[in-house]
Amino acid sequence: MEVENIKLLKKDGTESTMQGFIGGATLIFDNKFVLFGDINKLEYKDEIIKHINKYGLELVSFDGLDVYDYGGGIVV
């Protein structure tokens, strides 16, 4: 599923005109589904929330922030 409104940055830090992907805008850690932005800014938020709930994950979303594809996250 292509999710609208996920922003992608260019190497120089400015916004790209290309669309980002949900996989690069998320991190699953310790039973939490972390979204790098606000779930309410995504067109398919209901389907994403349904999927998160199906696997018993807790959603961590950042209210008011645009969603960015950073390429994923690493827990150290």
Name its key features.
single chain; 76 residues; alpha/beta; 3-stranded mixed beta sheet; 1 helix; 13% helix; globular
Task: Describe the protein in words.
The chain has 76 residues and is α/β, with parallel strands linked by helices. The chain has one domain (6-69). It is built from one helix and five strands, in the order βββαββ. A three-stranded mixed beta sheet has the order 2-3-4, covered by helices on one side. The termini are far apart. The model has no long low-confidence stretch (mean pLDDT 92).
Topology at a glance:
Elements: E1 6-8, E2 26-29, E3 32-35, H1 45-54, E4 58-60, E5 67-69
Parallel strand pairs: 1-5, 3-4
Antiparallel strand pairs: 2-3
Cα shape: globular
Number of strands: 5
Instruction: Give the N-terminus to C-terminus distance in angstroms.
Output: 29 Å
| Contiguous uncertain segments of 5+ residues | none
Rg for CA atoms: 12 Å
> Number of helix segments?
1
Number of domains: 1
Q: What fraction, in percent, of the residue positions are helical?
A: 10-25%
Tell me the major beta sheet.
Answer: 3 strands, mixed
Sheet/helix structural class: alpha/beta
Order of helices and strands: EEEHEE
Q: Strand order within the widest sheet?
A: 2-3-4
